[in-house]
Design goal:
Bound molecules: ligand 6R9
Number of strands: 30
Shape: globular
Strand content: 15-25%
Number of helices: 21
Strand order of the largest sheet: 12-11-8-6-7-14-15-23
Length: 665
């Protein structure tokens, strides 16, 4: 089917910050030609305790491993504070009574409104308490909380003190949480009694207890303080949890925060001081702590929020992502608050109590800007149009998507059914590592093609490399790389700068390697083709094949495992695991073994990593040097064994036949 080009609707173009393709092209060219002029002008709106140095010192970098260690810095010499710019600045400008959060709980009817002034007061109280516990500049704090206002408030309190926070998605298992805590040795863990997600109750405090027990026993890492928010709306009472509080370590939030003063001096930090770490999966080894800076990240998150959502003060914005992911950092906590936006903070899931929840909430608050993931769009699409059309949705102006490639059918449904064909869709390609949008339409400027992330954002210079590492000119496809630094890019991997260089800069010297494949068409539009490394994108969440494999071989009956992605109609990709059992067990084993292995993965990583298929493999296809041939496994998993390709390098070609037999019909 030929690609239809959709022009931005007139009402979106009118009054947009960038209202034509020509204007985008101008601004884009300017941003590359004069980075200091472009980013400096944007940064003027923020408060700086000390202004950045202009000239040569403004932005420094080395992007080429051949020339030495990789380093990137922006706004050198400047001093600022992200929390101050999110809160104090707006209050000082007379916007204290403006709402920043309309909280919608998991259950319909649970709601609250927070203003900028109220949030500032609360953040100061949290910061004062943290300070009283010895948390200061450069100290680590781990946050394991659901989507309640106290989660962004805790992130901001850390930022106020210059403490480095690490949010762990409250759906990760105790073992995953333990791994992330032990990597940072935090002075404090902030959590919550429990949460209700859809119809399910999850006792988060118990998961934290388990994680800390693992650390106490196995790693001799001791967390001195655990702050526990009593989340009444979860339906789990304080009394039910109280007995499990560890004396001297655990305290109830409600017992210590309310008495703190509502003023707390800001700690000014250097432009390049770290703001947070966020753990993400890669192709090898343990998840890595992606380190983000203060000033560059602040400007990148705010600028993309302003231009990609064409944000204006009357807008009501809603991003459904959890703060446990980068999207929740940049487009729930920081981008919107920096720009002073009113937004919905949503604790629930799009299908609870029914598939109309999102549109009901959109109508309730007259949401104008809505941002979600393709997996949610496909889920809602499968539930039927009636859940959408029942609601008005006339306030919507811009619909965003992020996390994985959006298939054109889902794009069209989002555009036509949800958006009444009267919205701009922004398909935003970016990563935990990039901190902010990289390739995306601007809603009032960029003609849209369903399934394409379109054109680069200001200051971003992508390229496509072929197998030999040469740049593809004009239309073509290959590896997506970025040619120069942008302000919000990651600065390092926590505690392991060599891994940072190895992962992102060693494949193609002089380029940042994204891990994605992409195609560029005759109009210069980018089409993201998905990961080219061993990362599986399940419902927009990155899972390393190595992590799942190591969870599986952690089970006493599993000798070896190889995990590959398979296409999935809702989740985008699903996890497909080939498992070799210990010698002496007959294939197929008892059904209980499969259940135990699945449970093992859920325990080691979390429910998001649940394998959809366990395929018994008495032997795995390997080369003579012992490398598993994942290409062959992928074809078997996706039932394309007629396209196995060259299998002559297999050490034992017979294994393929056995695998096909064990797969059955
Ligand atoms: C923001 C986020 C990053 C990976 C990335 C790519 C995929 C994200 C996409 C997309 C196609 C888009 N991805 N957005 N692919 N189109 N609009 O998701 O960060 O969790 O680090 O994932 O997600 O494969 O490399 P993260």
């Amino acid at each position: 089917m030929a690609t239809t080009v959709h022009q931005p609707p007139e009402h979106v173009v009118k009054g947009a910050h960038v209202d034509s393709l020509a204007k985008y092209q101008d601004m884009y060219a300017q941003s590359l030609k004069d980075p200091e002029g472009f980013w400096g002008a944007f940064a003027e709106q923020f408060h700086w305790n000390k202004k950045w140095d202009s000239g040569e010192n403004f932005h420094k970098y080395n992007f080429d491993l051949n020339k030495g260690s990789i380093n990137v810095s922006w706004f050198n010499g400047g001093e600022t504070n992200v929390c101050y710019n999110c809160l104090d600045r707006h209050v000082k400008e007379g916007n204290g009574d403006r709402p920043c959060f309309f909280w919608e709980g998991n259950d319909v009817g649970q709601e609250s409104v927070t203003t900028f002034k109220q949030l500032l007061d609360q953040v100061c109280q949290i910061a004062n308490y943290m300070k009283s516990q010895g948390v200061g500049k450069g100290d680590d704090v781990t946050i394991y909380m659901p989507m309640i206002p106290e989660l962004p408030a805790t992130m901001l309190a850390c930022a106020r003190l210059g403490a480095v926070f690490s949010v762990v998605f409250a759906g990760f298992s105790a073992e995953s949480l333990a791994g992330r805590i032990s990597d940072s040795s935090p002075k404090m863990v902030v959590t919550c009694s429990a949460v209700k997600r859809g119809p399910k109750h999850i006792e988060l405090k118990k998961i934290v207890d388990e994680a800390l027990e693992i650390l106490d026993n196995e790693e001799q890492v001791h967390v001195p303080r655990v702050l526990v928010y009593d989340h009444k709306a979860s339906g789990v009472s304080r009394d039910a949890i109280h007995a499990s509080l560890v004396e001297g370590r655990d305290v109830w939030w409600q017992d210590v925060i309310g008495d703190q003063p509502t003023e707390c001096e800001v700690t000014w930090v250097g432009a390049e001081d770290p703001l947070f770490k966020l753990y993400t999966s890669g192709s090898t080894g343990k998840p890595k702590g992606v380190v983000h800076s203060t000033a560059g990240y602040m400007c990148g998150a705010a600028a993309t929020f302003k231009y990609v959502f064409d944000y204006k003060p009357d807008d009501v914005y809603w991003c459904t992502a959890d703060c446990g992911w980068i999207t929740g950092h940049s487009y729930v906590t920081f981008g919107p608050l920096l720009m002073g936006a009113k937004q919905i903070l949503f604790e629930g899931v799009p299908t609870y109590p029914d598939a109309g929840r999102c549109w009901e909430v959109c109508d309730k608050y007259n949401v104008t800007l809505f941002y979600t993931a393709p997996t949610a769009i496909r889920t809602l699409m499968a539930c039927g149009d009636q859940h959408v059309t029942k609601h008005k949705r006339t306030s919507l102006r811009i619909l965003g998507t992020v996390g994985e490639p959006i298939n054109p059918e889902a794009w069209r449904w989002y555009h036509e059914v949800v958006g009444n064909s009267n919205v701009s869709i922004v398909d935003t390609w970016w990563q935990t590592e990039t901190g902010a949008h990289m390739i995306t339409p601007l809603p009032g400027a960029t003609p849209m093609k369903p399934g394409s992330a379109t054109l680069p954002f200001f200051g971003v210079e992508p390229a496509i490399l072929d197998d030999k590492g040469s740049e593809v000119q004009g239309p073509g496809q290959g590896y997506l790389v970025i040619k120069r630094p942008w302000p919000s890019m990651m600065r390092s991997v926590a505690g392991d700068h060599a891994r940072f260089e190895q992962t992102y800069f060693s494949h193609y010297k002089g380029y940042y390697f994204t891990g994605d494949g992409a195609r560029r068409d005759e109009d210069g539009y980018y089409w993201i083709l998905g990961r080219v490394d061993d990362v599986i994108n399940v419902s927009g969440h990155r899972i390393g094949t190595a992590e799942v494999e190591s969870a599986l071989v952690g089970h006493h009956l599993c000798a070896e495992a190889a995990v590959v992605p398979v296409d999935h109609p809702i989740k985008g990709q699903a996890i497909y695991a080939f498992v070799t059992l210990m010698n002496g067990i007959d294939y197929p084993p008892d059904e209980s073994v499969r259940k135990e292995l699945v449970a093992q993965v859920r325990k080691a990583i979390g429910p998001i990593a649940t394998p959809d298929v366990i395929h018994w493999a008495p032997g795995l296809p390997k080369t003579r040097s012992g490398k598993i041939m994942r290409r062959v496994l992928r074809k078997i998993a996706s039932r394309e064994e007629d396209q196995l390709g060259d299998t002559s390098t297999l050490a034992d070609p017979g294994v393929v036949k056995v695998l096909l037999e064990l797969r059955g019909k």
